[in-house]
Amino acid sequence: MAIDRTLRLLALTRGLTASEIAIALRAGGAARAGAATVGAWLRGEAAPGREQLEALARTFGVPAGALLSELASTLDPARTRGEHDLLAAYRALGTRQQGALLEVARTMAGTRATRGVHKPRPPRTTA
Fold first, then answer.
1. Which CATH number is 3-75 given?
2. What is the mean pLDDT of residues 20-29?
3. b/e string for 36-61 if b means 16 or more Cβ within 10 A?
4. 79 vs 47, more confident
5. What is the per-residue pLDDT for 17?
6. What is the C-alpha separation between 41 and 36, in angstroms, rounded?
7. How far is CA 13 from CA 9, 17, 25, 57, 72, in A?
8. pLDDT, tens digit, for every residue of 28-78?
9. Any idea where the domains of the chain sit in the sequence?
10. What angle, 0 to 180 degrees and rounded to 10, lies between the N-to-C axes of helices 3-14 and 50-60?
11. E-state strands within 1-126
């Protein structure tokens, strides 16, 4: 889930507006963030910094790592856009569908799961 969606869901469950979140952040001693800035975070137009994420976690009563890991996954330079799209699609599937998709992917990649560790299959030889 993208950081903006996570923040929107947290705000919705707590019944907080962007202005109220900004006030709570200032009251918690966080770096300045006005209602317009918080609104941009909620719309996905900007991302909060590390200090602001920690203050948001305190405001919403969630672990900071949850918000930080979400942001890190969106900024991970090792992942391509396709990988992000694939992961999002995978997460939207049910458990059985995820298992089937993993089996198809492993077959296509020529790997198999062995006790939770994926080892490449030896190349097939043709006689």
1. 1.10.260.40
2. 84
3. ebbbbbbeeeebbeeebbbbbbebbe
4. 47
5. 93
6. 9
7. 6, 11, 17, 14, 24
8. 776 678 899 999 999 989 988 888 888 888 888 888 777 766 555 555 555
9. 3-75, 81-118
10. 30
11. 111-114, 117-120
**Tokens standing for residue 126:** 């043709």
What is the CA 123 to chain-centroid distance, rounded?
Answer: 36
Q: Bigger pLDDT: 81 or 106? A: 106
For the entire predicted model, the pTM comes to: 0.52
Amino acid letter, residue 123: P
Four-CA torsion 93, 97, 99, 102, nearest 10 degrees: -80
Tokens 């209602």 sit on residue: 35
Question: DSSP assignment of 108-120, as one string?
Answer: HHTEEEETTEEEE
Position 20 scores a pLDDT of 92
Structure tokens at 115: 């006790």
